[in-house]
Each structure stands twice: as structure tokens, then as C-alpha cells.
Amino acid sequence: MTPHDQTDHENLVFTGDIADYWSCTQVHDYLLVMPELPHTALRLYELLRSMIAESQKHQPDTGLRQVSIDQLCWLLPGVNGKPTSASLMYELLGTLEHLDLVTPTGMQEIEGVNQLKGKEKAVRGILRGFQVKDLPPTAYTGWRNALDKLDAYEPEWRENAPQPPTHLTMLGASDDEGHQMTEIQRMTGPAEPKRNGRTAVYRLHDDAGRLLYLGIAGNYEQRWEQHSRDKYWWHLVARKEVAWCETRQEAQEAEKLGIRDEKPIYNQAWSTTRTSDSPPDDPFREPLVEALRESIKEGRYSPGHVFTDDLETAPSFGVSHVTLSAALIRLADDGVISCGPLVWQGRRRARSYTVK
Q1: Of 46, 56, 38, whose CA–CA distance to 1 is shortest?
Q2: How are beta strands 348-355 and 306-309 bridged, if at all?
Q3: Strand 199-205 vs strand 102-109: parallel, antiparallel, or unpaired?
Q4: How far apart, in whole angstroms, are the C-alpha atoms of residue 212 and residue 97?
Q5: How much is the pTM?
Q6: What DSSP line would sit under 79-125, residue for residue?
Q7: For 159-192, what is each residue's pLDDT tens digit?
Q8: Three-class DSSP category at 258
Q9: Left if phi > 0, otherwise alpha if psi is -120 to 50, otherwise beta: which for 80?
């Protein structure tokens, strides 16, 4: 629906149970401990979920309310009271779509939207609605709830994190009353081998020798694989160094001193030069968006060409996986490419996008 008419001064009179006045939106527990779902994206999901629940409760016949990116930025408080930026909002929506939690729908574009930039585009360029999903996909790897995750706790979880189980949902036959039965099979993969107290201190450099990142891990290869999926600067890594400490405490002290003295470009913890716990916006995303947009416009990618959002494709564009994913989502949001379904590639999900 479109925003309904309101007077400048609306008086609201409420009579009833106080619990009915302060509305409540329920979300499933698995979302609170969902791997790869950052807290800011979870908060945005809850806001979208609450708007849908409230609309269905009080205005069930009005349909889906459409909002702009700027309205979403207004709804979601930023760090230290600052407003949420439009670029971060695109990134958060991309994360929710990548995790198959939110799907944009019913988009309305004004004429000449592709000529708008920045705040003007966020304010009036596109109105969109959202389909919000409550339940995980039929094959989901993650914890069922907080106690499920707590039961897997190990003191060495920082360097050797226990792997969450995979839940397979299968629809069975109907019972005598016609209700379809559902079976959920829980599959637990092999546990990571336990290590002793030795902990690696690793340094990641670019091709010019600059220190990009300094970290510690019991299993550094596993940590690097995680970085390859969620760090926008990963494509810059050209050289890796590893040194071992006999205890985790020694490694933590070496990490703290190293970050303080060597000043890695992308570290947050122990840094004396950063003032916010929020990572900076991806500086590689917008250049890639514009390069792909121009290439499609010039015909280098013809209609029907398929882009794939996966770890193997990203290096061909000279960016990391998270940057490619956000850029493709942005182009799909702008109507340049169409978005296909999520598919499983081993334990990872990927999505295809087709040039219109």
C-alpha cells in the first residue's frame, strides 16, 4: 500500500490492556544465533517483520506497504546516534536476501531513476515492499536456539569453533485428518580435531607489502576461509605470514601489541585510531556497480548473460565475494539484472543473476 493520509496533528486515544498498546513481534529463536547474520541486519529484519505483522493486524485489506531506502534509513538507528547510510542499508538488505530471509517485491520506480544518485535516489527513486520469511530453508545449517548452541560450547571455541548441525525438513504423507506430516532430520558433521594450547598469529599483506590485517587462530586456514566470505578486502591479500605461540594468552598479547605498533589497515580490535565499532562501507562496491552497469549498457554483457554470486567468480572481477554479492544485489534492485533462486554449493549458498 502507499502511505495513508494523516493530519499534521494526530491524536491517538487507546483503551485496553497495556500489553496490546506496546506491540510485540515474535521471531523464531534460530535467527538469534544464525551464522552469518550480523546484529544490525537482524535488527532490520525485526523492523520489517514488525511492520508486516502490525499491518496484517490493523489493516489486513490494504496490502503491502512500500517504503524507500531513505525511509528504512530513518527507521533503523545508526551507530552512536548517527543515521544509517543508504550504502549500509543496501548492504544490510543484501545480507538478508542472501540468507533468504527477506525478498524485495512490488518495486515501483519513478521515470529516470537511473539518473538519480545518492540521497535523491534513496528518497524518491524506488519504492519497494518486502516478503519476510519466518522459517529456515528445507536444508539449513545452524543452531536451533540458544540452548542448542550452548550445549556445543567448548572453552577453545575462538580458535576451533564447533560446527553447527544441518537440519533437513521433509514433507511426509498426510494423517487421517488430512494434516501433512513434517519430518526434520538433524545431521551433525564431523567435529574439528581438538588442538593443544598452541595458537597462530597471522599477518596478511597486500602486493605492496602493506599490513592489511593481523589476527590469531588455532586453525588459521579455517579462519582464512571465513575471511574470504565476509571481508571485502580479502582480494587484496597477496602474502600471508604465520607464527606460533605456545598458549592462547601469548598469542593475544602478541596480537594486541602488533596491532598497536604495526597499525594494520583493517583491524578493529585493539586499534588506537578507530572510534567506532562499525566497519567502514565497502569502498570497492560502488566502482564495481558502475563498471558492470556500463558494461551491460555497452553490450559487453548481452541479455541472458548469467552472473553467479560465489567465491570462485569474485576474483575474476578483482574483488572479494562479499563485494560481488552486494554489487549484484544493487544492480538487481535497480532493475538492470534479474535475481534467480538460491542454490546450494556444498555447504554454501549462491545465487544467479541474469542480464535483462
Answers
A1: 56
A2: antiparallel
A3: unpaired
A4: 29
A5: 0.51
A6: GGGPBPPHHHHHHHHHHHHHTTSEEEEEEEE-TTGGG--HHHHHHHT
A7: 677 888 888 877 655 555 665 556 777 776 433 4
A8: helix
A9: left
